[in-house]
Amino acid sequence: MPIKRKRLQHGAYSEAALLPGEDPAEFKALHKGLIADFRPNGRMEEETVLSIARLTWRRRNLARFEVGQLSHYVLETLKREVAEESDSIRKFDNEIMATFDKMTEVSKRAREAKGTRPAVE
């Protein structure tokens, strides 16, 4: 039965013990630690400890996923705020340049009206 891609996103409902990019050695260390703690006796207890390892692993994955989602949200919010701030700065800069151009034109007309030459063009 193929594992659906959507179910692999964060592992909460994943049928695989490990998701792509996860460290198998880390899972193995967790599993070995639980074996040492519970000291299973027989196949049923071994399966139970393996289930505990998988559930513990998935719970950790879910926490990592939530942190990742929160980080993504914060990053996107910051990008949006910076873009809006950049737009505001760009508009302000354009307004300053337009005002400067108007002042230059008014000054040029005033000099022309007086018949004087501009100091610098």
Which SSEs are present, and which pair or pack?
Blueprint: H1 24-38, H2 43-114
Helix pairs in contact: 1-2
Secondary-structure-based class equals mainly alpha
Strand content is: under 5%
- Main sheet properties: none
**Could you give the order of the helices and strands?**
HH
Count of distinct strands: 0
- How would the global form be characterised? rod-shaped
- Overall mean pLDDT: 81
Distance between the termini: 78 Å
Description of the molecule:
With 121 residues, the protein is mainly alpha-helical. The protein has one domain (5-114). Helix content is 72%, strand content 0%. The protein has two helices and no strands. The protein has helices at 24-38, 43-114. The longest helix has 72 residues, at 43-114. The radius of gyration is 33 Å and the shape is rod-shaped. Mean pLDDT is 81; it is low at 1-15.
Care to give the gist of this entry?
This protein is an all-alpha fold and 121 residues long. The chain is 72% helix and 0% strand. It has one domain.
Descriptors for this entry?
2 helices; about 0% strand; mainly alpha; about 70% helix; about 120 residues
